[in-house]
Amino acid sequence: QLQLAETGGGSVQPGESLTLACSAPGFELGYYTIGWFRQAPGKEREGLACVNHDETGTLYADSVKGRFTISRDGAKRTVYLQMNSLTTDDTADYFCAADLDGFRSCDLNSFRYEYWGRGNHVAVSS
After folding, report:
1. Secondary structure class of 119 (helix, strand, coil)
2. Are 22 and 120 in contact (CB under 8 A)?
3. CA-to-CA distance for 124 and 98, rounded, in angstroms?
4. Which of 22, 31, 43, 115 has the maximal Cβ count within 10 Å?
5. Mind listing the pLDDT tens digit for each residue in 64-123?
6. What are the CA-CA distances from residue 60 to residues 3, 11, 48, 67, 87 (Å)?
7. Across the beta sheet with 78-83, what order do the strands follow?
8. From CA 11, how far away is CA 125, in angstroms rounded?
9. pLDDT at residue 53, as a whole number
10. Is 18 exposed, middle or buried (0-12, 13-18, 19+ CB in 10 A)?
11. Per residue in 9-45, pLDDT tens?
């Protein structure tokens, strides 16, 4: 069974950067559309970015466009979320998720994703 795991979270100051990684031991993520989501306390889960199986299509939420970048490694085993110019509003638990249909255009609606990681916390504070 596909088990996703997020790494790379932590505590940073406003304006700094972090890179999150999503992987699944034993699986190549290159077959799937991968999305990144986050959920802050008291708020709904928010779709941030997604990439389809061959990186021909990406999509970003307005809240992170120009600051966050989603990408895959060459071996197709890891999907990254590079986060720049972080603000306190970016504090949340971050999740990656897999849509098993990697050929369709990626979408930031969470219902499209069948498998989810457990989340990794990012805290931005001064």
Report:
1. coil
2. no
3. 26
4. 22
5. 999 999 999 888 899 999 999 999 999 999 999 999 988 888 999 999 999 999 999 999
6. 24, 23, 6, 10, 17
7. 5-7, 18-23, 78-83, 68-72
8. 7
9. 87
10. buried
11. 999 999 999 999 999 988 889 899 999 999 999 999 9
The tokens describing 72, both together, are: 């895959």
User: What does the block give as tokens for 113?
Assistant: 């994703």
Reduce the DSSP state of residue 37 to 3 states and report it: strand
Sequential DSSP letters for 40-73: -TTS--EEEEEE-TTSS-EEE-TTTTTTEEEEE-
- For 105, residues 6+ apart whose C-beta sits below 8 A from its C-beta are 52, 57, 59
- Alpha-carbon distances, residue 122 vs 6, 28, 80 (angstroms): 11, 25, 14
Q: Write the single-letter amino acid at 74.
A: G
Residue pair 100/114 in contact by the 8 Å Cβ criterion: yes
Residue pointed to by tokens 């708020």 = 43
CA torsion through residues 35, 49, 90, 111, sign: negative
